[in-house]
Design goal:
Shape: elongated
CATH topology of the largest domain: Alpha-lytic protease prodomain-like
Strand order of the largest sheet: 1-2-3
CATH class of the largest domain: Mainly Alpha
Oligomer: single chain
Structural class: mainly alpha
Largest sheet: 3 strands, mixed
Number of strands: 3
Length: about 325
């Protein structure tokens, strides 16, 4: 197992262990005190736990070598994992809204508020620390699955704070104005939690599905590539059909390189080796395909758009050919 894969697997396993403990703790306290917002948080952590298992499977599977059926590798397992995790958050949010509305229509008091506040506080701190760790590993290893899992946990931090605020408001209201019923704040906090979950679920699903549709690399990465391949070089006349996409952590770069018609095969091969090496230095692990074409002076529209020659140089080539 490579060092990078070992880091990703270790982070995913830590997420599984942490979420297992939090699910049991939240569910037990939620049932004990009769809080729909705490129970909804238990469900949220249950979805986080399922997402952590999905992420663990994805980071291991995405590192498998290309085979006959998957010649481009298995990197999109991480993107698929991100989409699944986003859909899980959508499902959890829908259930929370359903339960919260039911409690608003048929309210009942909450007992043992201090227990709910305690378990929410512990959960918020634990998930804040774990999500920071997952974000760091995801950024350093370019793991879509771990990034999605980290967003799951960071959402849990925000929702725990929302539930904490609701329970705290109920406790404060009962002490200051005991004549009023403050327990409606519990399902109201749960609905606020669900709204935030929908927002994060949309972002997760959108970002993870981009690479499933073979969307181009981000603008800043494409700009660097375009500047690099169009830099003036002896014997290079132009570049066209620059295409990029991403498969999990692996970037795919492909373009056509137009060279001087008298350039030898050996010279062109050496040039593409240098360009491939320099692109991989900037994007480690990238797959680079360069199609070399001799300049024939025909100057088709696609060639003119990426031509690196002046109009006078193009005229001289057309005269010679």
């Amino acid at each position: 197992m490579s060092e990078q894969l070992a880091r990703k697997v270790s982070a995913a396993r830590l997420s599984v262990a942490s979420n297992s403990v939090l699910v049991v703790g939240k569910l037990g306290v939620g049932v004990l005190i009769g809080s729909v917002s705490v129970i909804s948080e238990a469900l949220h952590s249950g979805m986080d736990l399922l997402a952590a298992f999905v992420a663990l499977y994805a980071v291991r599977g995405a590192e498998e070598r290309p085979d006959r059926e998957h010649p481009f590798g298995h990197g999109k397992l991480e993107n698929l994992s991100g989409v699944i995790e986003g859909l899980l958050v959508f499902a959890a949010a829908a259930w929370i809204v359903y339960e919260a509305v039911a409690k608003l229509l048929a309210p009942y008091p909450i007992e043992g508020l201090s227990w709910g506040i305690m378990v929410m506080g512990i959960s918020a701190i634990a998930n804040l620390l774990l999500s920071d760790h997952l974000f760091r590993v995801a950024r350093e290893t370019e793991s879509v699955a771990l990034d999605a899992d980290a967003w799951h946990l960071r959402t849990d931090v925000y929702t725990c704070v929302g539930v904490l605020a609701g329970l705290g408001a109920i406790m404060l209201g009962e002490r200051l104005l005991p004549a009023y019923d403050w327990h409606w704040l519990d399902p109201a906090a749960a609905i606020a939690v669900a709204v935030l979950m929908v927002h994060v679920a949309w972002k997760l699903t959108r970002d993870a599905s981009r690479d499933l549709m073979d969307t181009s690399l981000p603008l800043n990465e494409n700009e660097w590539l375009r500047e690099y391949v169009t830099r003036p070089q002896p014997m290079v006349h132009g570049v066209h059909n620059l295409r990029t996409r991403r498969n999990g952590p692996v970037r795919f770069v492909e373009f056509h390189l137009i060279v001087h018609g008298e350039m030898s095969v050996d010279e062109s091969h050496h040039l593409t080796d240098i360009m491939t090496s320099e692109i991989k230095q900037h994007f480690p692990g990238a797959s680079v395909i360069i199609h070399v074409e001799p300049c024939d002076g025909k100057c088709e529209p696609k060639c003119v758009d990426g031509c690196l020659l002046s109009p006078q140089q193009r005229d001289r080539i057309r005269v010679r050919t």
